[in-house]
Amino acid sequence: MALFNLNINGKTQEIDVDPNTPMLWVLRDHLKLVGTKYGCGIAQCGACTVHLGNNAVRSCQLPVSSIGEEKVTTIEGLSENGDHPVQKAWLEVDVPQCGYCQAGQIMTAAALLEKNPNPSDSEIETAMNGNICRCGTYIRIKKAVKMAAGAAANS
Amino acid sequence: MTLIKTKIGRRAFIKNTSLASGGLVLGFSFLNSCKPEQAKEMAVREMPKEWFEMNSYLKIGDNGLVTIYTPNPEFGQNIRTSMPMLVAEELDVDWNNVLVEQAPYHEEKYGFQFTGGSRGISARWQPLRMAGATAKHMLKEAAAQTWQVPVAEITAEAGVLRHAATKKSAGYGEMASVAATLDVPEEVPLKEVKDFKLINNSQKNVDAKSIVTGVPLFGMDIQKKGMLIAMIEHPPAFGMTLKSVDGAAAKAMPGIKDVVTIKSFKDGYEKGGFDTNAFPELVAIVGNSTWEVMQAKKKLKVEWQPISAYTETIAGFRGKETRNVPAGLESTTAHKSKMEALAAKPGKMVRKDGNPDAAFKKAAKILERSYSAPFLAHNNMEPLNAFAHVEGDKVKIAAPIQIPSLIVPTLASSLGIPKENIEMDLPRMGGGFGRKAYAHFVVEAALISQKVNAPIKLVYSREDDMTNGIYRPAYQATYRAAFDENNNLTALHVKAGGVPESPLFANRFPAGAIDNYMAEEWVVDSNITIGAFRAPRSNFMAGAEQAFLDEVAEAMGKDPIQFRLDLLKRAKENPVGEENDYDAERYAGVLELVREKSAWKENDATRHRGVSAYFCHNSYAAHVLDLKMENDKPVVEKVCCAIDCGVVVNPDAAINMAEGAITDGVGNAFFGELTFEDGVPQKNNFHQYQMIRMKEAPKEIDVHFVQNEIDPTGMGEPPFPPIFGAVANALYKATGQRHYEQPFVKEKKVVG
Ligand code: FES
Ligand code: FES
Fold first, then answer.
1. Residues 6+ apart with CB under 8 A from B707
2. Which of A29, A33, A141 sits opposite B289 (nearest CB)?
3. Is the CB of A135 under 6 A from ligand 2?
4. Is position B324 within any domain?
5. Are residues B281 and B357 in the same domain?
6. What does the DSSP assignment read for B196-253?
7. ipTM exceeds 0.95, yes or no
8. Which end of chain A is less packed: N or C, by CB atoms within 10 Å?
């Protein structure tokens, strides 16, 4: 066990866990932030995607001891009122089916647009390829990413 | 107007207050304790001071807000929106004033809460509209009594009651307290299709905001005070069972509370059709957090032993069935040789029309082709999980499951607790696809809770989920067609089987369209557990049949769509046999619609297109799929789809589901495969099991519905099966080679 001070969604959180504990389980079990999902545990599905600084990372493969001062943002902290352009586009396109993968999809998409505000189709495909959607909402995800890019460009 | 007697359904409209267990809706409820985003937004419009219950499906607040209890569990088909739409349509309430709550499991109030078989909307089509219509009638009655005018003169629209002659009006909220005291009427009028305002008008997913903001909704998200985490260790191979466990090292790990063994069935318990369970005896490890339990699990020392062969009787939907479960450790190669051996012998004749033997003997030409597909794992994104708290003789469950009522008898028996003492909440499922119809994991969770005497959440790791599967079986089908010297189709023969289930539907098209027809089946027994997977059996037969028909059309020099339409014309005008289970006209309807919408041209040399159509779950679906090869890999450029599922309740959501079914089908046709060696599933996570990803998904999907006034039929499954045929037929056009063996893409290269 070890004490960690983590900066999560703009708040400092102190937790006492095994240093090897992946951020995914720190978020879900210890901080009760269950928006970040468990899908595979081996960085293959993207359900657990969070932002570390400005990067989309798979929290299931991110030991809590590796975070340091870096800011962690989860789906719960992506925006104050659920009005991040990516979230708004997701609602407009009505993307989700079961919804389980969608927090991870949104976090990946938001990080992509942060770096590349106007991605091409193939750039979207490459960035989103690590996120599995078992329900097959890929067409809508792509549409929503483009819509969010357009909305950001116009604002 | 259609007058519907409410008698049959009256029990369903029973009010909570008149039930002994009436407090349930307001009692233990996970979904109440973490109210989704929707409720928060409602709060802006203010929650009412008092609610008045009209029936078990709805209550009306004194300010006109309406809460609709949606009965069936949600797994992504968006029934939490479309089912309340049915109630709201007949209630004539403003959709913006509707709050949706998930009903808990309660058979008496909510009937058969079954999510699966594409039956949700069709089964609820009448009862839910009646729930709305009876409540509206009671509100009108209340207004009539209050205003002392005849009830027939009261109108209701968008939550407002009016009496034109006296110019009186009142909101539903004002009349709700009186209405709730009235009797449920014996008869209520239901609207005609042409009068629908909400139905057939796209409404947004009521849970979308909660989903995109990470609100806890899923079984996996459940957190309760004092809750521990449990995981299981199951045998490493099918055909094995628990011998002994040494849990000392695991128990000594940090955060671990206990290591226990459980037995899922009482000796002699007669299983139901959904009690499928390869590993009824398990080791469970219980601790404070998921990660700690995962680490401790590695320290378990377990000895396994082979099972003995047994025969069991299952009380399934279709009566009692006997299942033979052999001993031994099975492998895919051995399955294949057994399947080939059985396919080469006569099978069990299920249907025979005319004289197919003579027709084949006389044939100028015979075309024979065999198709196969492997086991598939469901791979829901949310692994199996269940919350259970057994306290003395009381049981509280909250679990993402498709058929709550069917696991209750097993729970009661295994726990030794009466059925009446089991309460169950139905959180959202992160995918189901058939897997969550088999709720053994709920029994496991409850037994663990009982043993450790604490509330627990059982969590399957991805590996547990993939290797303790209730898989889509491996199948094979051989088709033969006989042609005369003029190249006319004179006979058709299908022989199909699988491990351990036959996929055959003997009475489906093209049965009924061909004079000489026969259908046979066979089965290879297995100890690998199998079960429903999106459109069971159809998900293989459609691909085989539609690929074969494509080859038959080609052999006859006919356009594949016209060829199918010709057969359907025959089936409609002069059907062979009486058992045909499809409507030839509706079948032809989707083919005609897809031909038009895809701008289909005969011998179109500009692109590689495949067509396919199928009937299942009382609905019809046809696809035209365009594919091209890029660096040896198939790319699906576009799928045009036509569906006849009767009245479409929520069109955009139905389109979403069709897009999903198509993408799912393309993925499984290309990559889906689980093999076994010595009983061990050869894949246990997504680094090995290839799932379709955005790069491989169709670039464009264009969905069309046949417009009619037929009561809704299935939607979640029907677009899935035919996609396999469309992929196979388009691949042939793109590569010049027919594809008979799924998955079609192996080691990133198309098998030619
Ligand atoms: S759970 Fe982390 S990538 Fe799948
Ligand atoms: S919406 Fe179900 S997994 Fe993506």
1. none
2. A29
3. yes
4. no
5. no
6. -SSTTS----TTHHHHHHT---BGGG---TT-EEEEEE--SSTTEEEEEEE-HHHHTS
7. yes
8. C
